[in-house]
Amino acid sequence: QASIIVTTRPSAVRRIPGKYVGRYAEICGFSDTNLQKLYFQMRLSQPGCCGENSVGSSSSEQENLVEMLSRNLERHNQIAAACFLPSYCWLVCTTLHFLYFTRTVPPSQTLTGIYTSFLRLNFSGEVLDSTDPTNISMMKYVAKTVGKLAYEGVMSRKTCFSEDDLQQCFEVKMKTESELNLLEVFRSDVFRFFLTPCVQPGKEHTFVFTIPAMQEYLAALYVVLGEKKTLAQRVGKELSEVIGKVSEDVAVVLSIISKVLPLRFLPVLFNLLKIFPRYFSRLSGRDRDAIAHTMAEEMFKEEDYYNDDVLDQINFSILGVEGPMRHPDEAPDDEVFELFPIFMGGILSRRNRAILEQLGCSIKNLAAFEIAKAMKKTVIRKSRKGLPPSELMDYLFFLHEFQNERFTAEAIRSLRTVNLSSVKMTPLKCSVLASVMGTTCHEVEELNLTSCNLDTRSLRILFPSFQSCHPHVSLCISLQLNSLGSDACKEIRDLLLHDKCVVSSLRLANNPVGKQGAQHLAEALAGNRSLTHLSLLHTALGDRGAEVIAQHLAKNQHLQELNLGYNSLTDTAALHVVEVAKKHATLDKVHLYFNDISEDGKRALHSLRMDRDGVRALVFLTAGTDVSDYWSNILNVVQKNLPFWDRERVRQHLALILQDLESSRRQTANPWRKAKFLRVESEVKKMLGKLQHGSL
User: Where are the transmembrane segments (predicted)?
Assistant: First the structure.
C-alpha cells in the first residue's frame, strides 16, 4: 500500500510536507564500473548497429570497441566518473556509433545533433522553477550560466574550474533574492549533471565538465544565443526597447499637438524619436558579425593547425590513446577546443534550432541567416589560404555540421586543392567528404589522399562525389600508401570508365596492386579518355602485371606518362612496354628505374631517342656520356619513398647507379659534363651514407 513519488528534481522533494514522506532514497546511477561495462557491451553488440554490413569484420570491430572502452574505464577515472550517470553512457555509445558505423552519404546524423538530442532527452519542457515569475527554461538558464563558464574556459584554454571561478561566473554577489533562489534550485538539481569533481591527482578541489565536449557545446550555445554581448550592445538593446515604447506614446501626442500648434521643432523631434530605436537596434545587431568573427577566429587558429582532427580527438577522449600513459608529474599538453566553432555552426542548422526551441533556447531564422551571411566574409575567405590536412578535415566537418547546402556549395566552389594526406580516413570522414563535395559542381583540381588508411569500402563511398567535378576541370588524385589491392582496383576501374570521369592524373604508388589489380587498371586504360599520367611505382606488378598493361595500352589514346619503377621488371617486360609506347600516339615518357634490367636491356633502352622513337625511358641517371635531364626527378622519388621501400634493395640499386655515373664520367672529356657527373655522384653518395647510418 505504499505510494511512491519519483523525481529527477531533489529541490521538489523539500516542498512536500514531511508528514507525507516516510523514507527517501537516492538512485545514483552506475556506481559499479562492471555495470558500465555490461551496458556498453550490450549496447555496442546489438545486431545491425553497424548498418547493412554488420557481419564479419564489423562484429570484430564491435568487440574491439568494447575492449578499448573497458580498458579506458579502468585506467581513466574521469570517463568512469562521467559514466556514473546512465544518460552519459547513452551519449558515449551514440557517439561511438556515429564515429565507427556511419556508412551513408550524407551521414544521417551530425555530432551537434547527437548532443542537442541528448539535452532534449534530459530537459525537454522543463522550467528551472515553476514558482518563479520569470518561468525560465532549464536549458536557457544552463546556457546563460554554465555556458558562460564554458565559454570563458574555452577562451582561456581551461578545463578545470575552482569554486571561485564558479562564484564569479554565476555572479553570486550581485544576485537578487529571487535570482539566488533560482541558483539554489540549479545547484541542487542540475549542477552535478554538467560539472563533476575532478579526479585528477592534485586537482581534487576543482570541477570539470562531465564530458569534455559538453564544455565546447555549451560555450557555442552561449555565443550563438547572443548571451556574449558587450556593454554597448546590452545598453543598446535595452534603450532601443525603452525608447521605442516611449516614442510610440509621445509620437501620438505630438502628432495631435502639431495639428493645433504647427511648431517648427515638433517634426524634428518626431523624427529624432524615430531614429533612436533604429540606431540602437543597429548597434545591437552587430553581434551577428561578432558571432561569425568568433567562429572564424576559432576555426582557423594557427596554433591548432597540426593537432589531430576533431573526430580523432573525440575518439581518443572516449577510447583513450593506445601506448604508454603519461606520467602524473609530466606537464599536460595545451588544451585544444577545436569542436567549439564546429558546434557553433551545427547549432545554427535548422533541425538543431527546432530542437533548441523546444528547450526554450530560441534562435530566429533571420538571426541564423544574418550569421551565415556574415560568415561568408570571414570563414570562406580564410579557408582559401590553404589549410594543413587535419584542419581541412575539421573545416569539411564544420560544413557538414552546418547543414546549409547553399553555404557549403559556395565554400566548396572556392577550393582548388583538397589535401588530406596522413588523415586517417574512417568511413565517417569519407562520408563527410563525399557529402560536402557532392553539394555542387565543384572545381577541385587536386585531391591528395596519400597514407589515409583507405580501403575498398572507402573508395566506394568517395568515388561518386568525384563525378560532380566541373567537366572542364582536370582532377589529379593521389592514393599512394593505402594498401589498395585488386578489389580496390575494381572501384578505380569503374571510376575511370565512367562517362563523367575527369581524372587526368592518378598516383597509386606503394600499394599492393599485383597482377590481378593490373588487369583491372589495364581495362580502365583501354576505355578511359581523360587520364594523362599514371604512376604504378612499387605496386608489385612483376613481369605479368606489366605485360597486361602493355597489351591494353594500344587501345588508349591519351596517356602521356607511365611510371612502372621498382616493380621487379626484367628485360622482356620492360622492352615490351617500351615497344608499345613507341607506337602510342601520346605516351612519351616511361619510368623504369629500380627494376631488374640487365646490362643488355639497359643498352637497348639507352639507344632510345625521343626524336626518332617518340618515347623516353627513365631508367638511370645517365644519358650516354652526359647526365640525364631527369636525374633530380628520379632521386627525389627515391628520397620520398625510401621509408616505405626495402632499404637493402635500394642500397644495391644506388650502388649500381653510382658505378654507372663513375663509368660515364670517365668516358667523357668535357669538363662541364664531368662537373655535372661529380655533382650527381655526391648526391647519390650522401643518400647512401644516410642509408647506411639509418638517418634517411
Answer: 79-101
Residues in contact with 317: Cβ distance below 8 Å, sequence separation at least 6, in sequence order: 79, 212, 213
Among 192, 199, 264, 273, smallest CA distance to 240 is for 273
Rounded distance, CA 399 to CA 394, Å?
9
Decide: helix, strand or coil at residue 431. Answer: helix
SS3 82: helix
The string of pLDDT tens digits covering residues 20-53 is 888 888 887 777 778 888 888 888 877 655 554 4
Instruction: Give the DSSP letter string of 228-296.
Output: ---HHHHHHHHHHHHHHHHHHHHHHHHHHHHHHS--THHHHHHHHHHHHHHHHHHHHTTHHHHHHHHHH
- Per-residue pLDDT, 685: 87
Displacement of CA 364 from its chain's centroid (Å): 28
- Alpha-carbon torsion, ordered 644, 645, 648, 650, to 10 deg: -130
Q: Rounded to whole angstroms, how far apart are CA atoms 656 and 558?
A: 34
Nearest CA among 424, 430, 439 for reference residue 463 = 430
pLDDT of res. 665 = 83
Of 480, 492, 481, 482, whose CA–CA distance to 516 is shortest?
Answer: 492
Q: CA–CA separation, 629 vs 623, rounded Å?
A: 8
Distance from C-alpha of 219 to C-alpha of 146, rounded to nearest angstrom: 8
CA distance linking residue 161 with residue 197, whole number of Å: 9
